[in-house]
Design goal:
Blueprint: E1 5-6, E2 11-16, E3 22-28, H1 38-48, E4 66-69, E5 71-72, E6 75-76, E7 81-86, H2 108-115, H3 132-147, E8 152-160, E9 163-164, H4 174-182, H5 191-206, E10 213-220, H6 234-242, E11 248-253, H7 264-267, E12 271-274, E13 277-280, E14 288-289, E15 292-293, E16 298-304
Antiparallel strand pairs: 1-2, 2-3, 3-7, 4-7, 5-6, 8-9, 8-10, 10-16, 11-16, 12-13, 14-15
Length: 306
């Protein structure tokens, strides 16, 4: 597989399989001399790791990060940073029957045609959600770099099934919102909706079924003038990374698909000057116009299939 690298300046290369020895990431393009907080990387992995509640996979992994290169005396060297976690809790015997049968809406058939039967099918191999642990490690480094410019990235569960959090959370108090989210087993911000989301998951689980949902992401303090027209739009670049996450089936920026039901006068974001800074009165554009950032928060919602 040659399609495991993303980025130009901050470049990541993911490797490993769900039931292999390990899952890892190589991060290239990090300047030398930066302090990288490994405890923060671990804390991000701890939020993601499986087996935290009965609502998630029964697989239980410690996911202890190991940094193999690119760090010396707690600082970056400028060389590629290699991070791994070990796979320890998996049962590959459950997947033996999938050598004979094709699961609906799973990668079995498309991987068979692409790789001629040589791809690791155990736990879906490279196509598993387990691979996202490598994205978390790289993201934890990226967050520390962005923090130096006061740029914050925040995501939460907006809906599960037909339970939708319609509140327009602005994420002004970043640390407070993180605490609220972490109190929810489904990573929602609305406590009442969180309980309903938990219940719908329990219901479909008892039916031996699954359910989809949506996730909202907000990037605050992103500078204006970043991106470009046509093939270098912010939407294009974000979407490529987002669709690298297994089970993501759709993305919308700002008002998204609702814009198709609006008049131009309704969708327009009027410009104003506030506190000496040009901004808009609302943000239906999602912080991006013409593929270029406006200085408003970048907002998008992604859809996750069952």
């Amino acid at each position: 597989m040659a399609d495991n690298t993303l980025g130009r300046i901050f470049k990541i290369t993911s490797f490993g399989e769900s039931h292999g020895d390990l899952v890892g990431i190589i991060v290239d393009g990090v300047p030398a001399g930066l302090n990288v907080d490994t405890d923060f990387i671990q804390s991000e992995l701890d939020k993601r790791k499986p087996g935290q509640s009965g609502l998630t996979t029964s697989r239980s992994e410690s996911d202890k990060v190991q940094i193999l290169s690119g760090m010396f005396n707690h600082k970056t060297t400028g060389a590629p940073i290699c991070l791994i976690i070990r796979n320890k809790d998996f049962d590959s015997s459950k997947y033996e029957e999938f050598k004979k049968y094709l699961r609906p809406s799973q990668v079995d058939y498309s991987a068979l045609k692409k790789f001629g039967g040589f791809a690791d099918y155990r736990g879906s191999g490279r196509f598993s959600g387990r691979i996202t642990a490598s994205f978390v490690m790289a993201g934890a480094i990226a967050k520390q770099i962005l923090k130096k410019s006061n740029i914050t990235v925040f995501a939460y569960t907006k809906s599960i099934g037909n339970v939708v959090d319609d509140e327009s959370h602005t994420i002004d108090d970043f640390e407070k919102e993180i605490q609220l989210r972490e109190q929810s087993s489904v990573r929602a911000l609305n406590a009442e909706k969180s309980k309903l989301m938990e219940q719908i998951i329990e219901d479909v689980k008892n039916q031996k079924d699954s359910i989809g949902g949506t996730i909202r992401c907000i990037v605050n303090n992103f500078p204006e003038g970043i991106g470009g027209p046509v093939f270098n739009s912010i939407e294009s670049n974000i979407s490529k990374g987002i669709f690298s996450i297994p089970a993501i089936k759709a993305i919308e920026f700002g008002a998204g698909f609702k814009a198709t039901e609006m008049k131009g006068s309704e969708h327009n974001d009027p410009w104003i000057v506030k506190d000496g800074k040009i901004q808009t009165t609302k943000n239906d554009a999602g912080g991006i116009i013409g593929g270029i950032s406006t200085g408003m928060p970048i907002e998008f919602i992604v859809a996750v299939k069952p």
